[in-house]
Design a protein that fits this description.
The protein is built from seven helices and ten strands. It is an alpha/beta fold and about 230 residues long. It has one domain: Rossmann fold, CATH 3.40.50. Strands 4-2-1-5-8-9-10 form a seven-stranded mixed sheet, with helices on both faces. Helix 1 runs parallel beside helix 2. The longest helix is centred in the N-terminal third of the chain and has 13 residues.
Length: about 230
């Protein structure tokens, strides 16, 4: 499985790791992204979050970390990509950022690369989000680059569960669900995946069209398909 570990996923991860229906000893886990140059000891490190919020809570024995502070970054990216592509990903748990990103594929996202992981430049909106979530005191502290699972690699997952709570995600949700499929709205590409479920709350769904909002009053999920 692939796991997003950002702040918007914490409540979901807490519920997931308490599931008694999963034989966690048989699970192999990868995470989506990590900042370039960030040590695992930093509170904002996604490696740190994966270990603390998933691995140690479940006893997962086989997990793979994206080493953002590796001495040879290119070699580290290639190696984790090699590990990822040994077998198909059964399920990916991801979110959508305030700027519509999936993983750290900020707009305009690369929809074409076949590399499993890529080094990306983070846009200003993405970096502001990290400050707003409390991981950094100011923009100057937020790294400008990250290692991210690529869009095409995410789409290779057999199933994608996308958890998007909070009113600050409402504009991105509307653009991804109702707008055109476009690299400027990276999450919109999920509509080309045959088995994606997007879970919203009423705040994140608040800008959707009345028809979709009415549907959400009756249903806990929206199935997004082409």
């Amino acid at each position: 499985m692939v796991v997003a570990t950002g702040a918007s996923q914490f409540q979901f991860l807490d519920a997931l790791t308490k599931s008694a229906d999963v034989d966690w000893a048989k699970v192999e886990a990868f995470h989506l992204d990590e900042y370039v140059g960030m040590p695992i000891t930093h509170p904002g490190s996604f490696r740190k979050m994966l270990l603390e919020r998933v691995v140690r809570k479940t006893g997962i024995l086989k997990y793979h970390l994206v080493e953002g502070d590796a001495e040879d970054l290119s070699a580290a990216v290639r190696e984790v990509g090699r590990q990822l592509t040994v077998a198909p990903i059964d399920i990916a748990f991801i979110g959508i950022g305030e700027n519509g990103h999936i993983a750290f594929n900020d707009p305009p996202a690369d929809f074409e690369t076949n590399e499993p992981y890529i080094v990306v430049e983070l846009d200003e909106a993405c970096r502001r989000q990290q400050v707003g979530e409390g991981w950094f005191a100011n923009m100057a502290q937020v790294p400008t680059r990250a290692i991210s699972m690529s869009v095409r690699q995410i789409l290779k997952s057999r199933e994608i569960i996308t958890v998007v709570p909070d009113k600050r995600k409402a504009a991105a949700v509307k653009a991804c669900v109702e707008g055109k499929i476009d690299p400027m709205v990276p999450g919109s590409i999920l509509r080309r995946h045959a088995n994606t479920t997007v879970y919203l709350d009423h705040d994140s769904a608040s800008r959707l069209s009345p028809m979709l909002r009415d549907a959400l009053k009756q249903e806990s999920q929206v199935i997004v398909s082409s």
